[in-house]
Amino acid sequence: xxxxxxxxxxxxxxxxxxxxxxxxxxxxxxxxxxxxxxxxxxxxxxxxxxxxxxxxxxxxxxxxxxxxxxxxxxxxxxxxxxxxxxxxxxxxxxxxxxxxxxxxxxxxxxxxxxxxxxxxxxxxxxxxxxxxxxxxxxxxxxxxxxxxxxxxxxxxxxxxxxxxxxxxxxxxxxxxxxxxxxxxxxxxxxxxxxxxxxxx
Length: 200
What we know:
single chain; Lipocalin
């Protein structure tokens, strides 16, 4: 009985050690990066019957979990958030109309969350730069759609750079394009989101 108990304990220890040595390298290979709000820029551009416009996001946050030990980097998670009322155009009236359209009292954040990486491939001119397309859910003003988000991914000196742009339609998120001056100025339905972000 003593022999069987000791043998069973030894076997259990061996299994625990094997699991530990197997999982530890996997844990070490995946790194967690956080968006640096102080660097880079996220802006939204669009048109109106009067002039083109842009709004810059002053408050943004996010995390990426990335494994760069293989031939191609693997992104296992990506979440990106912009505070709705941090979008600033430099014009108070326009900002108020934007916040009204986005219903910011009830929906304080714009959020993209990764579902899968559709494609990733190296850029031939640089060893640390890749073109990627991520499929994920984008939530604006309480409405969520699945979109493909294209970006260039650069890994450099402990940082990740994500750069790209994505066209969207406000009406796809049940947003009525803002109007001004009693409806004489109307914002175009199509907008473009430009992102140049730094993650550490």
